[in-house]
């Protein structure tokens, strides 16, 4: 149920954002894009630090430093080899051209990355599947509504298509939640959250147009902590 609410919120916000877009000049749209990127970067950095910094014995230490670096390096190697960014772009632009749709590729890709990458999407879907508690996904829906509204105001109707990605991604996690729950330790969830928030920071940098980053090519990095801890668990049996 939580994922359905989330997807509906994105579609509704996109429609409102597209209507809002008509009254915005290019200068204002670029300004909105910059501040959205700045806000996304700042929020993601805060979420990252929440997992990265640990208070212990009256002091502050960090956790997962080396694993994060390895995950990002190995992930980008895999992503660049497969070239996920190009394949995702080609697919979206192909649909756009084939069906003579208005520009939607950028909105679809940006929305998919923002709404699907992050701790709330994973943890919320797991909670929904295991306990039936949709609270986290409902909170995420409210945040995604605001983000989609702003995003659609300069990227257009393509943002609505990211709701399909949310349905598939979060829905799959919810359906598989009971089966995978025993394997998802707090360490795995924390590592996933940290890597996911670094990817969100990269999206923020893209929005601010400080540097063009192929964010989709970073996605395999999310798998590395899971693989690492599963191998560790096998050897510790």
Low-confidence stretches: none
How large is the radius of gyration? Answer: 18 Å
Q: How many domains make up the 3D coordinates?
A: 1
Strand content: under 5%
Question: What separation lies between the terminal Cα atoms?
Answer: 37 Å
Biggest sheet layout: 2 strands, antiparallel
- Strand-pairing-aware structural class: mainly alpha
What count of helical segments does DSSP give?
10
State the total count of DSSP E strands: 2
Rough shape? Answer: globular
Question: Topology as H/E string?
Answer: HHEEHHHHHHHH
Oligomeric form of this entry?
single chain
Average predicted local confidence, pLDDT: 86
Q: How are strands sequenced across the largest beta sheet?
A: 1-2
**What helical percentage do the residues reach?**
over 70%
Which properties best describe this structure?
237 residues, mainly alpha, two-stranded antiparallel ribbon, 3% strand, globular
Q: How is this fold's topology laid out?
A:
Layout: H1 2-21, H2 26-52, E1 53-56, E2 59-62, H3 65-82, H4 84-98, H5 105-116, H6 119-130, H7 135-155, H8 158-180, H9 186-207, H10 223-235
Antiparallel strand pairs: 1-2
